[in-house]
Structure formats: C-alpha cells, structure tokens
Specification:
single chain; about 550 residues; mainly alpha; 4-stranded mixed sheet; about 60% helix
Length: about 550
C-alpha cells in the first residue's frame, strides 16, 4: 500500500470507529437520569466551566490552566483537547462523553490493537485484524470509566506510546537517547493528565528493567547494558525536569503526603482487590487472556509477556495504597490486552476454520460482553449465560424513586433562606450532598460540607451548624464497614434523637432508592458543647487523635 492509501485506510478506520463509539455513547447516555455525583460529575462540571471560561477570556483560561497543572490533583489539562467539542456541540453529557471517545478512547483502542495484532501474528499474513479491532473496540474496561464521565482513558494513550517506544527500542538498548526521551515524555504526560498514573509508570519501568536485564544476560551484550542505562537516565531526567519545572508545588505536596494513610478507608484486603478487578471482565474474557498468555509462552511473544508483567506490577503497586476503582484499573487491563489479542489471533487462524466465521464468533463474544456490562436489557437477556459479561455492572445511572428526590430538593429550596445551609449525613449512590446539588446546582451555595471518609476528611463540626440536615434509615455509605463513622454515628444520633440529635426535629420523610428512607430535619437549637463532646468521645473509640474542637 502507498502512503496515501495507508493514511486513507487509517483515517477511514478512525472515523468509522468514532461514529460507532458515539452511537453507543448516545444509547447509554439516553438511558441515564441527570443525577451525576462525585467522580461521575467532577470532570463533566469542569468541562463546562472550562468551556465557558475559554469563550469568556482565552487569556484567563490559559493562566488557570498553567496553575492547575502546577498545583491541582484534579488538573484540567486532560480537558484541553476536548474543548472543540464544547465549542461546537455545547456542554451536554453526550458532548462530553463523545469527546472522550473520539479524542482518547478510539486512538488508544486502535494503537494498542494494532501493536498487539502485529506482535501476535506469525510471519504468514493473517486475516484476524478485524477480530482484534472489534475486540479492542468493545473491550469493556476501556468503556466503563468513559461512559461514567471519567476521561482517565487519556492516560492509556500515553502509556501505549511509552510501551511502543520501549518495545521498538528493545528496552532502550537501541537509539537510547531519543528512545529514553520519548518514553520519559510519554510517562510524564500520563502523570500530568492524572497523577495516579505514577503507579502505572512504576509497573512498566519494573517490567521493562526485568526483560531488559534478561535479554542482556542471555545475549551477554554489555554494550546493550550501557545503552539501556543511558536511555533510562534520559527518561528519568526528562520526567524529573518537566515535573519540577511545571508541577513543583504538586510534587512537593505529594512528597509530604502519606497516601497510604490518607486513602486507608479505600483499601481492603488483597483478596478483595483481586475479586474487584476480576469482576471487571467476564469469565470468558479471562479465559481468553489465560489462553493468550500460554500461547505467548509457546510462540515466544515476549511483547505480550512484557505487558502482562507491567499489568501485574501496576496492580501490586496501586493496591498498596487503595483498591483500584474502574478508572484506576485502566492500565492493568490495557497491558492484558496483548494476551487477549494473542488468543484471538490464534483462534481465528486455526487451520480448517474459515476466518470469516471465527471472526464473527469473536465479534459476538465481544458484543455480548459489552451489552451485558452496560445495558440493563442486555444484562437481563443474557443472564442465563452470565459468563459472557463482566460481573461488575456499569449500568446507566438511574434512581428508583426520582420524584421523591425532587420532592426533597424542592423542600430544601422552598424552606431555606439565603444564608441557610443544609448537610447530608449519607455518602453513597443512594444519597449524598453531591447527588442533590448534582440534580440542582442552586443547592451548591447552601451546602454545609461534612466528612465522607474518615481517613481523608475527618469529621467537619461546622456541619452541626446547618439549619437543615438529611439522614437515612438505613445508613448510606460506599466504603468498607467502619471507614465512614463520621457519617454513620451522627446519622444514628439524629435518627434516635439522642446526643446531638436532641437539637433537631423531623419535618419530612422520603422513600429513596434501594428501600432506603430519607428524613429531613430542622435544627431547633444549637448543639451544646456537652453533646459535641459526647459525639467526639464516640469517635475517639476508633480514632484517639480526634480532639474535640472549640465550640
């Protein structure tokens, strides 16, 4: 093929894949209710804020972009390539998700799919590319955070580029300077877009070092060792130089923070972590990955094995801090895809089987996995063969009793004076302050912020000065038992009318989702010093360092 034909082929493939991706996104978003909260709303809200600021004052937008890169955990740099979608299509949820799909997900899919395919096929031409393309496009771990409004798949594009440069240079032993600079730039870019990708950088670094030393020991090539060291130094120097130059305040903050302590509430056991990650792919997908790894060993597909080891090290590194959520799992599954592709290529290329039918079978398997993971109708229809889709569903966000939530919001808006505040002693998908002001942005100005996670927030006593509070029966939490007593204990006291609860009276009840009953209380008198001390005495049974504040 000529260069023009190659360019035309990939342009056409990209555009077709984007159109299919946007169609799937539209079908998913159309099933949702506008009840976005926490990470599902954070970047969506920033997408609209950044778009409005860019139109209002491009100079201010550039200035705050620089500040965000230098200082913020949730940096807005990841949204910069998405701004054309906001300018052209507006700030709807579909515009946001479609932007992530077109700018980040599809390029990452095509990139990792193509590399995996090239390393999986033998020297004989294969017709399995279409099957690998379909499998990559419908690979559910890429879509789970994307459809929930998290743009973290952007980091997968940078990591795939880093993986490519490492592999092409035989782990920096060829053209070490330019290869090291390229790898360093890609790894820093992933970290700059989302700082937690630092764990993925550790994973691929350890894996690359292992395979590089293994290769050098086998070949006894000390020139290669010297080149690898030079390339590694170049990569480290570029990462350090760019991070210190553009992100010094953030780096200083990271070095002074113990994230293992800060996020201890988000961490469970190793077995639980394995189960959570395992539930994000179907049993059939896992079986194909295992088969792919076995075939990789037999055929000497070292690329697949190198990526699999990077996946394992990333999981181990991240799991020391907290349990990996959907978006945190992205690099883990990114580097498992080459093994998945190896299995697909091998099955499609089995002698005696028509590639057309075997490719169609792989497409059906990938399609079933997608439908069963993301669409309620698909999950219900395919329930007799549940092994074909992921155990962890990522269904469109909906609330069972939406009118009751709207009634609660109406009551709050109707009752509150301009200076009144409300606090919510619940923290989960059924009820939280973020859920309520996500449904009505007018509530943001009235929120009395409270603790959601003990290890990260501690209890916020100012929440007890809010005129109105929302509590639930039963308590609503989203982490392991005992990680959110700053929510559950005040919730119980107010429900039972004891301690701090004696300062409140119940004024309304609401039937929320999942059989939970919500209650709206009004404070009839200030919480006393003795009541606050009794509350903190309860807290100190688990956290002795939580001193009672001045009151």
């Amino acid at each position: 093929m000529t260069k023009n034909k190659i360019c035309g082929f990939w342009t056409g493939t990209y555009l077709c894949t984007v159109l299919l991706g946007i169609a799937l996104s539209a079908a998913y978003v159309n099933l949702e209710e506008s009840a976005y909260y926490w990470d599902f709303a954070a970047y969506f809200n920033m997408f609209n804020q950044q778009g409005a600021l860019l139109v209002e004052s491009p100079s201010k937008w550039l200035s705050q972009l620089s500040t965000s890169i230098a200082t913020e955990d949730y940096g807005v740099a990841i949204l910069v390539p998405l701004m054309p979608f906001h300018l052209v299509f507006g700030g709807s949820r579909l515009s946001f998700v479609a932007a992530i799909v077109a700018v980040y997900l599809v390029p990452a899919v095509l990139f990792i799919g193509r590399i995996s395919y090239q390393e999986a096929v033998s020297e004989t031409p294969s017709r399995s590319w279409i099957a690998v393309w379909i499998a990559a496009f419908l690979y559910t771990p890429f879509w789970a955070p994307t459809l929930r409004g998290m743009p973290d798949v952007a980091g997968c594009l940078a990591l795939t580029a880093a993986t490519y440069f490492l592999w092409k240079s035989r782990f920096l032993t060829r053209e070490p300077v330019i290869s090291g600079i390229s790898v360093g730039a890609c790894l820093w870019l992933a970290f700059m877009l989302r700082r937690w990708y630092a764990y993925a950088a550790i994973g691929i670094t350890v894996s690359a070092a292992f395979f590089c030393l293994l290769q050098i020991a086998r070949d006894r090539d000390f020139t290669a060792l010297r080149n690898a060291v030079l390339g590694g130094v170049c990569a480290i120097f570029l990462i350090a130089a760019t991070a210190l130059n553009f992100q010094l305040p953030l780096i200083a903050k990271i070095l002074q923070t113990s994230y293992a302590v800060l996020y201890s509430g988000y961490k469970t056991t190793f077995v639980t972590q394995l189960g959570e990650v395992g539930s994000r792919l179907s049993y059939l997908n896992w079986a194909l990955i295992v088969v792919g790894l076995y075939i990789s060993v037999l055929r000497g597909n070292r690329f697949s094995l190198f990526c699999a080891m990077a996946s394992v090290f990333t999981f181990l590194a991240f799991g020391r801090t907290q349990d990996p959520e959907r978006h945190h799992s992205l690099p883990i599954f990114l580097w498992l895809f080459p093994a998945y592709a190896q299995a697909i290529v091998s099955l499609v290329s089995v002698p005696g089987l028509k590639s057309r039918w075997s490719s169609a079978a792989m497409a059906v398997v990938a399609g079933f996995a997608f439908l069963g993971t993301f669409f309620p109708a698909g999950r219900q229809l395919l329930s007799p063969v549940g092994f074909v889709f992921a155990g962890e569903a990522t269904l469109p966000l909906r609330l069972d009793n939406l009118p009751e939530y709207r009634r609660l919001i109406h009551d709050l808006v109707d009752r509150m004076e301009p200076n009144d505040r409300f606090s919510v002693f619940a923290s989960g998908p059924v009820m939280s302050d973020a859920l309520l002001f996500g449904m009505n942005r007018d509530l943001v100005a009235h929120v009395g912020w409270m603790c959601q996670v003990d290890s990260r927030d501690r209890f916020q006593p100012d929440a007890l000065k809010s005129r109105y509070v929302v509590v639930t029966d039963h308590p609503v939490t989203h982490l392991q038992l005992g990680a959110q007593i700053c929510v559950t204990i005040p919730n119980r006291y107010i429900l039972e009318g004891k301690g701090i609860g004696a300062a409140y009276k119940r004024i309304a009840a609401y039937q929320l989702s999942d059989g939970v009953t919500g209650y709206l209380y009004e404070q009839v008198r200030p919480v006393s010093k003795a009541e606050l001390e009794a509350l903190y005495a309860e807290f100190r049974k688990k956290y002795p360092g939580w001193a009672t504040p001045e009151w």
